[in-house]
Write a structure and sequence with these properties.
Serine Threonine Protein Phosphatase 5, Tetratricopeptide repeat; elongated; 72% helix; 21 helices; 1% strand; mainly alpha; 410 residues
Length: 410
């Protein structure tokens, strides 16, 4: 243990000098790296670290693709282990920033990652002030914007905790979490944090609307405004920024999907049809595009065309049951145009279609509800008897031309 602590200290002293020692014994470097890797693989970090430091001291770039990550694993494992001697833990804490400086310098391809890790130990291990850790996280994100949301959130929490009303940290936190909302639109956590910063979602929506109106060509602000409007179910507010975003990127599937859904929420069937028709051309393997196109057509009263899209959605979705449920709903709507026994036959077709949807997905409770709801609307035994219709007879649907189907008498 004492040897390991001395090794860490000596190595860092050597790196601090202007002339870094570069060994000419390449075999020793290979041997040391091999031993380091073997000990690392066996999770014997106490034995691994001296060899790792030896390799870095001799040639900090040769194995840079692997050694800094493996060294980091060992340093963290020893630091976090309850079985590590306190003096070794302290030695690791004393040298961890210098280790990350080496990783940043000699593995520039992963600079952002190591900068983020340096910021993390500065905050968690060393309890350095926000005046140190905030710039470190900012630098890491600037170097590698694709960093995990974990690091964005760490920075955001520091902004929130250290906002004094005049340093702009609240606004920076909002901008940061807006990025996360855009990155992870299905994750409600980030949007909720932004809302908390404002006190309520209405104030947040007003703020982001005004921010975009002052800078109407700013895509980032338009996205933030649209995302908040959608979260607040303020569909009328969402339309304008979404239309702007689509104008900037006409083939962006994400923007188009949001815009199409927004038109649907606003009962603007023609616009919704237009958008989902385009989406199908752009992304023909996405079942949702056919499904929402079908709903838009249904809302526009184009029931035959809607059925075509629902059937395609089920096919693309490998037997997706929900569109079949909506097929049944189309028949139920169409029945109103029929009279007496013909209407009952259409209701029977709808009921049979709901049964098919339920057989495809036993959890589709909506289908079960509609089956029960129609139980009193389908033909009775007396209806069949008085019309001399025998069990098993095939009865075509004739009162609605586009249906083109038949039912079988029970």
């Amino acid at each position: 243990m004492k040897t390991l602590i001395q090794t860490i200290a000596i190595t860092l002293v050597l790196f601090a000098s202007s002339n870094i020692a570069q060994t000419t014994d390449s075999m020793k470097v290979l041997t040391d790296y091999s031993l380091f890797s073997e000990y690392h693989k066996n999770k014997d970090c106490v034995s691994a670290l001296p060899y790792g430091w030896s390799v870095i001291e001799a040639n900090p770039t040769k194995f840079s693709k692997w050694i800094y990550y493996k060294m980091e694993e060992c340093l963290w494992a020893l630091h976090d282990s309850s079985g590590t001697a306190p003096e070794l833990v302290q030695s690791i804490k004393d040298t961890i920033l210098a280790f990350y400086d080496l990783a940043i310098k000699y593995r520039p391809e992963d600079k952002g990652y190591f900068e983020a890790r340096k910021a993390l130990v500065s905050e968690l291990w060393l309890s350095l002030p926000a005046s140190v850790t905030i710039p470190e996280y900012e630098q890491a994100i600037a170097s590698q914007p694709a960093l995990s949301s974990f690091y964005y959130n760490k920075l955001g929490q520091l902004y929130v905790a250290n906002d004094d009303g005049s340093n702009g940290y609240k606004e920076k936190a909002i901008d940061l979490y807006t990025i996360l909302v855009d990155r992870e639109p299905e994750n409600p956590v980030w949007g909720n944090i932004i809302t908390d910063l404002f006190g309520n979602i209405d104030d947040r929506l007003k703020f982001q609307k005004e921010a975009w109106e002052k800078d109407p060509q700013n895509v980032k602000k338009a996205k933030a405004f649209a995302a908040t409007a959608i979260q607040a179910s303020e569909w009328a507010e969402a339309v304008t920024p979404l239309e702007f975003l689509v104008s900037q990127e006409p083939d962006n599937v994400g923007y188009l999907t949001q815009l199409g859904n927004t038109y649907t929420k606003l009962d603007n069937a023609p616009k919704s049809e237009e958008v989902f028709s385009k989406l199908i051309k752009l992304d023909p393997n996405n079942k949702d595009n056919y499904f929402y196109f079908g709903k838009a057509l249904m809302d526009a009263g184009k029931l035959s065309q809607a059925r075509t899209q629902f059937l395609k959605a089920s096919e693309v979705g490998n037997g997706w049951a929900l569109p079949i449920f909506y097929e049944g709903f189309l028949y139920e709507q169409a029945a109103s145009g029929c009279t007496d026994f013909d209407r009952k036959l259409v209701y029977l077709l709808a009921q049979n279609t709901y049964r098919r949807a339920l057989s495809m997905d036993s959890n589709l409770s909506e289908a079960r509800d509609r089956i029960n709801a129609l139980s009193g609307a389908v033909p009775t035994k007396e209806d069949y008897f008085f019309r001399n219709i025998k069990s098993g007879a095939v009865l075509p649907i004739t009162c609605v031309g586009w249906i083109g189907k038949s039912v079988t008498a029970p």
